[in-house]
Amino acid sequence: MSHSTNRSVRWAWYTLAAVIIVLDQLSKYWVQVSFFEFERINLLPILDFTLVYNKGAAWSFLSEAGGWQRWLFTGISSVVSIVLVIWIHRLVAVQKLLLVALTLILAGAVGNLIDRVLLGKVVDFVLFYYDGHYFPAFNIADSAITVGAIFMLADVFWGPSEVDLKADVNDQEKNKIKGDANDS
User: Fold this and answer.
1) Is the distance from CB of 101 to CB of 151 less than 8 angstroms?
2) Is residue 123 a contact partner of residue 32, using CB atoms and an 8 Å limit?
3) Per the domain annotation, does 135 fall within a domain?
4) Three-state SS for 5?
5) Lower Cβ count inside 10 Å, N or C end of the chain?
6) Does any domain span residue 176?
């Protein structure tokens, strides 16, 4: 008995992930053909676009590790992406905040995974700073992961209750039974 979202709703979430991945990759391509490494263009008093390559993980963790980290992070990103696809597939429709969260995290993980596989490093280009303090450069994939994590936390506090989840599962089972009866 499947408790997953219906097929068309599930594909809408996967399509959203694909759109974010395409935007991420197009923006990274644009930055790579438009900037030299470390070149900066000021957009606002607190925001620059730049081209920075990150061989490590978040905030350049393990970036100087000698190359093996590429495959470690590629493996981790691959496993996480597969788990997220399965998780999205198994969620019920009423879990909208969690569906948004997982879709954003999936898109971000795949966006950066593509960079690691093709380039051996992640392309970052958005640079925020204030009064001489800099936040590490990031990209659209990183933003999707961050916003997804925020939505995941929101789901913990404001997501559907157990009663809502059970009602949604019962509705899906009734619709499945009706669909099976109509098919025969």
Assistant:
1) yes
2) yes
3) yes
4) coil
5) C
6) no
Give the Cα separation of 35 and 37 in Å (integer). 6
The residue segments making up the domain with residue 151 are 7-169
Is 124 among the catalytic positions?
yes
pLDDT, residue 43, reads 97
Residue 121 vs residues 54, 56, 135, 180: alpha-carbon distances, Å? 5, 7, 19, 49
Count of domains observed in the chain = 1
- Please, how many CA atoms are within 13 Å of residue 31, restricted to the half-sphere of its CB? 27
Enter the pTM of the model.
Answer: 0.81
Identify the active-site residue in 115, 142, 155, 168. 142
Reading the chain (184 residues) residue by residue, the pLDDT tens digits are 344 456 677 888 999 999 999 999 999 999 999 999 999 999 999 999 999 998 766 655 555 556 666 678 788 899 999 999 999 988 877 788 999 999 999 999 999 999 999 998 999 999 999 999 999 999 999 999 999 999 999 999 988 767 666 665 555 555 555 555 565 5
Active site includes 168? Answer: no
Domain contains 179: no
Check if the beta carbon of residue 92 is closer than 8 Å to that of residue 5: yes
Asked if 173 and 98 touch (Cβ cutoff 8 Å), the reply is no
Of 24, 115, 124, 155, catalytic: 124
Q: At what angle do helices 96-119 and 7-34 cross, to 10 degrees?
A: 40
